[in-house]
Specification:
- The chain has 359 residues and is of the alpha+beta class.
- It folds into 3 domains: 143 residues, no CATH class; 120 residues, no CATH class; 58 residues, His-Me finger endonucleases (His-Me finger endonuclease fold, 3-Layer(aba) Sandwich), CATH 3.40.1800.
- It is 42% helix and 12% strand.
- The strands form 2 sheets. A 7-stranded mixed sheet has the order 1-7-5-6-4-3-2, with helices on both faces.
- It is elongated and about 90 Å long.
C-alpha cells in the first residue's frame, strides 16, 4: 500500500458537506466519501464531539486520519469518520459548543477554525488492503463491534439494505421489536442478532451468500414473523428482552401454545424465589427445560450442615466421604414443590449423585 502524507484545511474539508443518511455522507467538495459502506454510523456522544471542536479551537493537534485513494481520483475515509463528521456538523451549524454555534463566533475565530490543518495519510491499495487496515486501526479509542467488522468484509448492496432496517436508532426494527432485543441498533447489535437467528449462528456464511443481493427484505420479513409469533403467545415484556427468540421460533413455530395458560404460569414463576433468572421463564415454558431458570443452589454453609447431620456419609450408599467429594441434592425436586432449605438437602457422593440425575 502506498501512503502519502498531506495537510487538508477544515475550510477545504467542509466544502460541499452533505449527509444523506444511508445514501452517504460527503465532503471535500464532493470528492470525499466520509461513510463508505463498511464504515459505521456516527456514534460520538456530545462530550467527545465537543472535545474535537475544543481541540481544534485551541490549535492543538488531532490524531492523524487515513483516507483511501480510489481509481477515479476520489477518496474514502478509512479512519477519522467520527472526527470529520464532528467538525463538519459544527461548521454546518448543526450543534453548538459552550452555547456557541459556529456562526456565533467572531470572524477571526471562524477563520482560525477553517484554517486549521488536518494531518491526513492518503493510502492507495487494493480493497482487501484497505479493509484489513480498517479492521486493525483503533478509531479514536472506540472498539469496533464484530458486526461492524462483518459489515466491512461483506460490504455491498445487501449490507446497505439491511442497515436501513436494523441499524437506525428509532428505526423500523427498533419500533417493531425493541422490547425484545438487547444492545444498540446504531452499533449493529440488532442486525447481528437477527442474522444469528435466521442463520442458526452461521452469521458469516449467511452474509457471504447474500452479499450481492439487491435487498435484505427476506431478513426483514423473517424478523416480522418472529415478532408476530412472540406477540401471539407471550405477553410479559418485563422478562422478554435479550432472549434468543428467533432460535426458539425456528424450532417451535409450528407448536401451539395456550396464551392464557402461558400468562398464568408466567405470573406464578415470576413470584417464585427459587428462580434466580427470570429471563429464563419463557425459554423454560417453551422447552420445558429447567436449566433456563437457574434454580437456587444450596450454599456452602447449608452443604456443610447437611454433611454434619449425615455424619459425613452419602445418603444413598452410606459410605463416608469428604465434603469435597460430595454434591448437594434436593430431596424433593423444585418441580414437585421442593425448596432450597436445609430440611430439603441431602449430600450424595459424586457417583450416586450422577446416577440419580441420569435416571
Amino acid at each position: 500500500m502506498k501512503i502519502d502524507l498531506k495537510q487538508i484545511s477544515i475550510r477545504d474539508l467542509t466544502i460541499g458537506y452533505e449527509d444523506n443518511d444511508e445514501e452517504g455522507v460527503y465532503g471535500y467538495n464532493g470528492k470525499l466519501d466520509i461513510r463508505p459502506p463498511y464504515q459505521r454510523n456516527f456514534i460520538y456522544p456530545e462530550k467527545q464531539r465537543n472535545a474535537v471542536i475544543d481541540t481544534v479551537s485551541k490549535g492543538f493537534p488531532l490524531n492523524v486520519m487515513y483516507w483511501a485513494t480510489r481509481e477515479d481520483g476520489t477518496f474514502e475515509v478509512i479512519d477519522g469518520q467520527q472526527r470529520i463528521i464532528s467538525i463538519c456538523m459544527y461548521v454546518n451549524g448543526d450543534y453548538s459548543v459552550n452555547d456557541l454555534a459556529f456562526h456565533n463566533l467572531a470572524t477571526d475565530k471562524q477563520k482560525q477554525i477553517l484554517d486549521y490543518p488536518l494531518t491526513v495519510y492518503f493510502c492507495t491499495g487494493t480493497d482487501s488492503e484497505k479493509l484489513e487496515w480498517f479492521k486493525t486501526i483503533n478509531i479514536a479509542g472506540e472498539k469496533l463491534e464484530q458486526q461492524e467488522l462483518r459489515n466491512a468484509v461483506y460490504s455491498g448492496p445487501w449490507v446497505t439494505s439491511a442497515k436501513r432496517y436494523f441499524s437506525k436508532i428509532n428505526g423500523v426494527a427498533y419500533n417493531l421489536g425493541g422490547d425484545y432485543l438487547d444492545g444498540s441498533a446504531n452499533r449493529q447489535h440488532y442486525l447481528e442478532t437477527v442474522i444469528k437467528w435466521i442463520s442458526e449462528g452461521k452469521i458469516e456464511s449467511y452474509m457471504s451468500e447474500n452479499q450481492h443481493s439487491t435487498n435484505a427484505e427476506p431478513l426483514w420479513n423473517y424478523f416480522k414473523d418472529v415478532i408476530s409469533w412472540i406477540e401471539k403467545y407471550f405477553k410479559n415484556k418485563k422478562i422478554m428482552k435479550g432472549i434468543d427468540w428467533g432460535l426458539y421460533y425456528n424450532k417451535y413455530k409450528d407448536k401451539t401454545f395456550d396464551p392464557t395458560s402461558i400468562d398464568t404460569k408466567t405470573k406464578e414463576l415470576i413470584l417464585d424465589d427459587e428462580i434466580t433468572k427470570k429471563k429464563g421463564i419463557y425459554p423454560y415454558l417453551i422447552t420445558g427445560e429447567e436449566k433456563h431458570l437457574s434454580l437456587r443452589s444450596f450454599t456452602d454453609s447449608q452443604k456443610l450442615k447437611a454433611h454434619q447431620i449425615q455424619g459425613g456419609k452419602c445418603k444413598i450408599c452410606n459410605e463416608p466421604f469428604d465434603i469435597s467429594q460430595m454434591e448437594a441434592d434436593h430431596i424433593e425436586a423444585w418441580s414437585s414443590g421442593g425448596k432450597t432449605i436445609i430440611e430439603n438437602c441431602q449430600m450424595l457422593c459424586t457417583k450416586d449423585h450422577k446416577l440419580l440425575k441420569n435416571k
